[in-house]
Amino acid sequence: MSDWFKIADDTFRVLSEIATVVGVGGVFYAIKSFKKSEEDSRQTEQSKLMENSIEVLRIFSSNIIPQMIAFDKEWHANYDKLKKSFLEKAREENKDIKELPKPLEKVLVDLAKSETDIDGIFNRLEQVCAYVSYDLIIEDVVYPTIHKVFLDFLKENKELLKKLTSREVPFKNIHEVKNKWGKIAAQEDLDYKQAEINKEREELNKPN
Fold it and tell me: CB neighbours of 54 closer than 8 A, spacing ≥ 6?
């Protein structure tokens, strides 16, 4: 009887050790599977971010930039008409005006721009900027290509953006990206100037 108990005890002990090994192996397998799943998920996320980045660049190049070019031509044409009309009226009143006063010129520029579809451009920019605001793109892919066009356009039309911004239409994403990218661009400009100064200093300090 004791031999039977000894055999049974050894058997249970072996089975217990096997179960432990299998359990540990299962844990390792689960961890490995989780890490692989996590890596796959990360790669899928990066792939989606890249797709969004390419889509933003596509929209900018094929849609927004052509709209900006058309807007620029349109408001200049509007301005020329307004200026011509004003000067003709001045001549009718026997006023010798060859050039518009700066304050009046600014008023006519704003009026010429307001007669275009700049609202449509701002609405399109707001949609694109949402991708940036909510981290749905890879910024290192998008920023270098479009930030200058984006910032220059907003700078040239800041009065209209201010006028069109309201509680109902806040253009939240445009303002957020403008502030963010504006700071990055300003820092890049400072870094570039500092690098140029450092080069000049090195040249000056070189022995003759």
Answer: 141
**Overall domain count for the chain:** 1
Q: pTM of the entire structure?
A: 0.76
Q: How far apart are CA 118 and CA 121, in angstroms?
A: 5
Domain extent at residue 189: 2-205
Nearest to 165 by CA among 132, 131, 133, 118: 118
CA distances from 120 to 70, 131, 161, 180 (A): 12, 18, 12, 23
What are the distances in angstroms from CA 119 to CA 48, 86, 122, 207?
30, 26, 5, 60
Give the pLDDT confidence of 153-167 residue by residue, as tens digits: 999 999 999 999 998
- Phi/psi for 166 (5° steps) reads -145, 180
Percent of the chain with pLDDT over 90: 58
Please give the backbone phi and psi of residue 181, each rounded to the nearest 5 degrees, phi first: -70, -30
Q: Model confidence over 174-187: pLDDT tens digits?
A: 999 999 999 999 99
By the 8 A CB rule, do 108 and 75 touch? no
